[in-house]
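2024-03-11 09:14:02 INFO queue: dequeued item Toluene 1,2-dioxygenase system ferredoxin subunit, len=109
2024-03-11 09:14:02 INFO validating residues
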Amino acid sequence: MTTTINDINQAGNHRLVALDELKPGVPYRVLHEGTGILLCLVEGTVHAVHDTCTHEDISLSLGVLCEHRLRCPLHGSQFDIRTGKVLDEPAEADLPVFDVSIVDGWVCI
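2024-03-11 09:14:37 INFO prediction written
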């Protein structure tokens, strides 16, 4: 789900982006094996969730991140980026989350 510095054994070794590319509070979209993943650096911790809203097929990278709440740009559904849990409708399904590790300055899943 989330980490600041973790053992590589807790996550895979798929490098996504250099850690210094992430800006606090600014969602960062990457593609990994055809899947959009949204990375969010909040309070020194990197979180990774699926980039597509579970209510409508839209990239959450276009949404607004406020602390740990990510708001969908289309209908305003809100998700907790730490857990993927829906916080506000109209979405009903949680977002998939990814285990993250930081290895040699790279964000990895």
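2024-03-11 09:14:37 INFO annotate: The two ends are 9 Å apart (CA to CA).
2024-03-11 09:14:38 INFO item closed
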